[in-house]
């Protein structure tokens, strides 16, 4: 069984026998009667052909992967025992050609290389090569079939005789456009994943093949054999590799090819400069370094094998063989030392070359930035005279805008009222701050006097010259008289509460002390009340003076609310003074 038969068997496993039979039957009549079914059959065959090509079994074991070589008896290669030969293969070829999934290989190779740089071309240029095929779908059925027969070697039966004679396909080579683009995309992605410097953009044909490692679906099925490189990477033959390089350089403009030197872009959006003469030498050094690395690995493996052989011969008491193995190990170690030295030296040279190439790129960037900045600074908009004129014009415009804004707000009565309210609120807030400041100063002045009076003893209070009613201020006379009357009432009540019996001398002395303490407390309360009254008088005088100053301003509407606010603020202080006086009594 051929490799293609093994592949088809693996692909038919998920399908039922009826589905396989439907795909292998002649379905050309359903092109107009059932277009959806026809398109489904063609799409299934297109996927099958691409999978066979990627697995390396489309053209035989290890054949080409980007070209379908259609033979004279192509149906026989796709024959299956359960379903026989595919009856609609020619119809599939016609549809794939019309949809540009396939492209005749001579037509693709006949296009000349662009004379300009590769970057001037675009991926869309590949469609221009198929312009003749694009016009094919617009031709009548008979003309289209005749064109295919003459140009591509296809012979199709007419629609009327399709049921009587099956279609026949002649040989020809067709490019798998979708596979070509898939390989190109994979190669570019693998390159940009490893590209870190200008030297990493250079490849030989052998190192370029390593970029194909890990291509999805590129492993051939069991029994196919061939077509794979080391590590599972795809190995294209020389013809397919040339097609891929042609597509990258001519159609996509992302590669430069010169003999054995391949150069790819440094970044996905960068252009590819031409290949310099010294870059071929650098590439040769890189290849030599790679070979040295491979030789070092091979020598290390051979040394380990010699050591193991000497150990086995020694265990088997084969002294001569053991000595020969040790001598061979010694020679290999000597060669390894020389290879390691050469590898280190060549690696250092490559590092210096890479550093120099990076320095060149940096200096080019510096030169480009300098010229760009100089061209920007030379613009007429950045000249000093132009900047000064622009600044002056901007200042004038801002001043005009401010005048217009003030004029507009002056015509708005609502805005004037809001401004007046804002002024009134500011004045009221300033008044409240002054009142709080006066209250705090009054309390600070009264606290030392109260503490001093409370610290005075009974003897100092007795020696103090009493203040006569004539010497007291008029606003202190009433509180002191009330305090004296309170003391007299307290003395009379204490006298009535005394026992009828004549008190002893000690009791009389104790009563006298109690009376003195009560009189002292009354005098202290009277002094505190007098201090509070004096502070209130001073605060009231300050408020009156402040109100007089406010009357001098043209704010008649704001004075009345402030006066009411002042009266309201006086009421809590009067109530507070009465409570303190009652508590003192």
From TrEMBL:
<dbReference type="GO" id="GO:0000815">
    <property type="term" value="C:ESCRT III complex"/>
</dbReference>
<protein>
    <recommendedName>
        <fullName>Snf7-domain-containing protein</fullName>
    </recommendedName>
</protein>
<feature type="compositionally biased region" description="Basic and acidic residues">
    <location>
        <begin position="575"/>
        <end position="585"/>
    </location>
</feature>
<feature type="compositionally biased region" description="Low complexity">
    <location>
        <begin position="448"/>
        <end position="482"/>
    </location>
</feature>
<dbReference type="GO" id="GO:0009898">
    <property type="term" value="C:cytoplasmic side of plasma membrane"/>
</dbReference>
<feature type="coiled-coil region">
    <location>
        <begin position="282"/>
        <end position="309"/>
    </location>
</feature>
<feature type="region of interest" description="Disordered">
    <location>
        <begin position="561"/>
        <end position="585"/>
    </location>
</feature>
<dbReference type="GO" id="GO:0032511">
    <property type="term" value="P:late endosome to vacuole transport via multivesicular body sorting pathway"/>
</dbReference>
<feature type="region of interest" description="Disordered">
    <location>
        <begin position="501"/>
        <end position="540"/>
    </location>
</feature>
<keyword id="KW-0175">Coiled coil</keyword>
<dbReference type="GO" id="GO:0005771">
    <property type="term" value="C:multivesicular body"/>
</dbReference>
<dbReference type="InterPro" id="IPR005024">
    <property type="entry name" value="Snf7_fam"/>
</dbReference>
<dbReference type="Pfam" id="PF03357">
    <property type="entry name" value="Snf7"/>
</dbReference>
<feature type="compositionally biased region" description="Low complexity">
    <location>
        <begin position="501"/>
        <end position="532"/>
    </location>
</feature>
<feature type="region of interest" description="Disordered">
    <location>
        <begin position="437"/>
        <end position="482"/>
    </location>
</feature>
<dbReference type="GO" id="GO:0006900">
    <property type="term" value="P:vesicle budding from membrane"/>
</dbReference>
